[in-house]
């Protein structure tokens, strides 16, 4: 789930269309209004001093946004009686270890200089053109640190003519292509692939932006120059044939490069136990699905998932905000104890939050820490560790008939004999060490070392 009531609508329509006939197949907006969470923002401004017969006019600007959450009424009416609750803890004995690791990189000096120039220009454009500049801003700032050695950047801001439907260009912001041999991310990717190949492990590399800023061919070239056999899963391969194509050609590749959208659903990629999100977008549904493609029943090797980003950039902001949204999705799905009753205090979409950060000059740093905190909660929920278990014992009520009983609640701990694998960093050079500790010792280790990542073992 992506966290919104609308995510359940079409699934429910396929399961029980007769129960949703009041909405109709195109009634997703009506479903959202009845069972979802909607925020309405209304701004009133003086209408340029215009005078009307009965007083001064006011200009009304109304913005309606959907928010994460679903009504408990919808859960009871549509979901509970057709749900089977199976937790990851029920099958975890059959799964190998799973690790998620966020790595932030310092940019090359030239790369950083031109990125900051581009960021300043786009921030000014956001202030001037508002929402019209949002799409250009997101694509440019997320892509340019990686595509700057392949393409010059060109962010085009357009406005639509309401009468003709045609778009008019109102601003163009550019940044040059840079003569850098290997970017920091690329150097780390080569190193990681070398380490994995020495252990007989194949690597799956996700590249999110494969339109006008497609860097797959560059990654293929620099990896092949280092002796790797590299394949690219293309969009032209039909969805139903993609798993067959991968299985047929896997023996030919050390590294497979693809857009995560192509493999996020239905595919079991056992051959690629190491996954690298070289580019990270802002769709949490895609990210959560794509990250688990090789961590499936039947996988024998430990699974490692890496997220690459440049520090103090929009890439890091996207990862920090994604971690927050994953936590909110876990709340909606009932995997965290707060459940549906939780108030989403920071419930704007990732896109809106990134735009706000740019305009206000806010920086989202600490992607490693944010991701670690989210992973801690996710592991706790998966293993049922997020709270003490409440059990009820039955006892007879004194002086009453034998049939009269009362329920006595009792808290029992869930953390006995649970161990968690963690990765810590120490010192300015971030020397990494791994250890397996008792769950109850984690908070003390956080204070001592500064926690970076969790693994599920």
Automatic annotation (TrEMBL):
The enzyme's E.C. designation: 3.6.4.-
Stored Pfam families: Helicase_C
Gene Ontology molecular function: helicase activity; hydrolase activity
Keyword terms: ATP-binding, Helicase, Hydrolase, Nucleotide-binding
Ranges of residues in domain Helicase C-terminal: 184-348
Alphabetical list of InterPro entries matching this protein: Helicase_C-like (IPR001650), P-loop_NTPase (IPR027417), SNF2/RAD54-like_C (IPR049730)
Lineage top rank: taxon: Bacteria
PANTHER family associated with the record: SNF2/RAD54 HELICASE FAMILY
The protein's name in its UniProt record: DEAD/DEAH box helicase
Organism: Thermodesulfovibrio autotrophicus
């Amino acid at each position: 789930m992506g966290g919104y009531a609308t995510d359940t609508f079409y699934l429910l329509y396929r399961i029980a269309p007769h129960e949703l006939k009041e909405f109709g197949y195109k009634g997703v907006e009506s479903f959202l209004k009845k069972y979802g969470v909607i925020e309405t923002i209304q701004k009133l401004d003086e209408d340029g001093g215009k005078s009307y017969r009965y007083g001064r006019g006011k200009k009304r600007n109304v913005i309606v946004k959907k928010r994460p959450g679903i009504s408990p009424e919808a859960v009871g009416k549509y979901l509970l009686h057709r749900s089977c609750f199976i937790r990851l803890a029920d099958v975890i004995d059959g799964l190998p270890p799973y690790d998620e690791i966020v790595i932030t990189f310092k940019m090359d000096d030239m790369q950083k200089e031109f990125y900051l120039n581009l960021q300043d220009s786009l921030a000014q454009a956001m202030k001037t053109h508002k929402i019209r500049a949002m799409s250009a801003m997101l694509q440019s700032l997320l892509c340019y640190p990686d595509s700057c050695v392949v393409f010059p950047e060109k962010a085009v801001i357009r406005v639509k003519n309401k009468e003709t439907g045609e778009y008019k260009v109102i601003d163009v912001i550019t940044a040059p292509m840079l003569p850098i041999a290997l970017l920091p991310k690329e150097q780390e990717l080569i190193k990681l692939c070398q380490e994995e190949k020495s252990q007989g492990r194949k690597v799956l590399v996700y590249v999110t932006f494969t339109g006008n800023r497609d860097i797959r061919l560059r990654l293929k070239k620099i990896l092949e120059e280092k002796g790797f056999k590299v394949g690219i899963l293309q969009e032209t391969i039909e969805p139903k044939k993609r798993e067959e194509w991968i299985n047929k050609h896997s023996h030919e590749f050390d590294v497979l490069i693809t857009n995560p959208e192509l493999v996020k659903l239905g595919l079991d990629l056992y051959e690629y136990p190491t996954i690298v999100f070289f580019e990270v977008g802002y769709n949490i549904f895609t990210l959560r699905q794509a990250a688990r493609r090789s961590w499936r029943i039947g996988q024998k090797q430990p699974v490692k998932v890496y997220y690459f980003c440049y520090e103090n950039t929009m890439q890091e902001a996207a990862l920090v905000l994604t971690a927050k949204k994953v936590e909110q999705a876990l709340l909606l799905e009932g995997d965290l104890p707060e459940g549906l009753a939780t108030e989403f205090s920071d419930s704007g979409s990732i896109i809106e939050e990134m735009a706000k950060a740019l305009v206000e000059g806010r920086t989202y740093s600490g992607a490693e820490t944010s991701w670690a905190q989210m992973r801690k909660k996710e592991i706790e929920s998966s293993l049922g560790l997020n709270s003490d278990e409440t059990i009820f014992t039955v006892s007879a009520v004194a002086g009453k008939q034998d049939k009269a009983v009362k329920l006595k609640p009792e808290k029992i701990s869930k953390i006995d004999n649970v161990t968690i694998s963690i990765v810590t960093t120490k010192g300015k050079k971030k020397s990494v060490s791994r250890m397996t500790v008792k769950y109850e010792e984690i908070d003390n280790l956080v204070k001592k070392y500064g926690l970076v990542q969790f693994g599920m073992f």
